[in-house]
């Protein structure tokens, strides 16, 4: 391929796809503010409590959770981008922050979730997994008193002085209640601080500007592990990385190849199979 044709190819692909990093906290804000919305062809929220707990554990460990596919469509009446792939992950992320996605009120298939009790907690003194526990319709048994609401912890931003002070106060109160006896107050604080850093954990989004027909084909291939699409993404990602490297720029982040390979599957597999 000649240099001019290669340049045209890169520009045409760049017009269709672009990679944008967001943090966990920013992704939740996008949903709550209505800047990311749910198209009608997406299924309802179907994840089990164990899958929500697994997602929390992956974020806790800093594991990649796969790309989010965002469709920048002109069909949206209120100018929002559509979440084409990643609804289960984004919904679960909202639940970790203690908020319900707005589309639950609009979509009949999701309306049942409004009356369910979603409770995700961190075992503050756990020496071994599971560190997180989740319940949808019933109370979590907590004879030790060590299970702390994840949303209560994530309400504080560790990047701000007041957020760190609030976490210090929480750690102090836990110790005063006689909990976490095998841990110091500083260790309890560090556990909660680590969880709060989910707010600033980078997530990768692929923004697509294709028409609906192409989007549905992309969605189908992602959910059937379409190798051709992943190779196209990886090819573009590597070309972008080389271009940025040559230019000496640092503003464009390209997802690791493993993340591209961990695109969502058929939605029925477990966390072990990376089905986010």
Helix content: 40-55%
* Percentage of residues in DSSP E strands: 5-15%
- The span between the termini is 37 Å
Give the SSE string.
HEHEHEEHHEEEHHHEHHH
Unreliably modeled segments: 248-275
Largest sheet: 5 strands, mixed
Work out the helix count. 11
Description of the structure:
Strand 5 (119-123) and strand 6 (132-135) form a beta hairpin. By secondary structure, this protein is α/β, with parallel strands linked by helices. It is elongated. It is built from 11 helices and 8 strands. Helices cover 44% and strands 13% of the residues. The protein folds into 2 domains: 3-46 and 62-113 and 200-273, no CATH class; 119-198, no CATH class. It has helices at residues 3-16, 24-32, 49-61, 87-96, 103-106, 150-154, 161-176, 185-196, 212-223, 227-247, 257-261, and strands at residues 17-23, 36-37, 68-71, 81-85, 119-123, 132-135, 147-149, 202-208.
Task: Please describe the structure with a list of short key phrases separated by commas or semicolons.
single chain, 276 residues, alpha/beta, 5-stranded mixed β-sheet, 3-stranded antiparallel β-sheet
Characterize this entry briefly.
The chain is of the alpha/beta class and 276 residues long. The chain has two domains: 3-46 and 62-113 and 200-273, no CATH class; 119-198, no CATH class. The chain is built from eleven helices and eight strands.
Furnish the topology, listing elements before pairings.
Blueprint: H1 3-16, E1 17-23, H2 24-32, E2 36-37, H3 49-61, E3 68-71, E4 81-85, H4 87-96, H5 103-106, E5 119-123, E6 132-135, E7 147-149, H6 150-154, H7 161-176, H8 185-196, E8 202-208, H9 212-223, H10 227-247, H11 257-261
Parallel strand pairs: 2-4, 3-8
Antiparallel strand pairs: 1-8, 3-4, 5-6, 5-7
